[in-house]
Input
Amino acid sequence: MSSFEWMELQTLTSDIATARSRLTAARSSRNVGRARGLEEEIIAAEARRTHLLASITINLAATPETALARPKIGRAADPQQAAPAGEAAPAVLAAAPRRE
Output
């Protein structure tokens, strides 16, 4: 999976939103020909977006889980493992109720 696919998805989504705004304007001005053209443009863009989403989903499903959830070097994946022996991790301390 490449970042190109994600950029293309973002571009298609933006183009569809823009075309829908233009369609609303065309309908309000009763420009039937323009409205039909925009409807066809939206249908084609939505079909491309659906195909692209399917491709991204397939690529995500095919990617090994370990490649997606790699911990950063020098940090433990589990905050409990990062705490020194005998001390609670900062996240656990923050979640504990305060006693005053």
